[in-house]
Specification:
Elements (H helix, E strand, L loop, with lengths): L9 H8 L7 E2 H10 L4 H8 L6 E2 L2 H25 L5
Antiparallel strand pairs: 1-2
Length: about 90
């Protein structure tokens, strides 16, 4: 399951989430906020994979779902690197 080319750093995700002004908020609104606030491209890409009609009820909901996706993507990337070592 590769969805992101470069999973975001968890600190970047958390820093962005701290700027979300109110809840509930849809994934579409989160994505627009990420773009407008010039969040790192990896953070924008993270929020672009959620269906637009996904609703995050509060900060904890947004944080936990975002971190879960980011962690799963990082693990998937590490597994792929282990199975596909780069050739010199």
């Amino acid at each position: 399951m590769i969805l992101l080319k470069n999973p975001p750093q968890l600190d970047d995700v958390r820093n962005f989430i701290a700027k979300v002004p109110q809840y509930p908020i849809s994934a579409q609104q989160v994505l627009a906020l990420a773009k407008n606030s010039r969040a790192p491209q990896e953070v924008i890409e993270l929020f672009s994979i959620f269906p637009a009609d996904t609703v995050f009820t509060d900060k904890d909901d947004l944080t936990s779902r975002s971190e879960l996706v980011s962690i799963l993507e990082s693990q998937d990337e590490a597994e792929n690197d282990a199975f596909n070592p780069e050739e010199d």
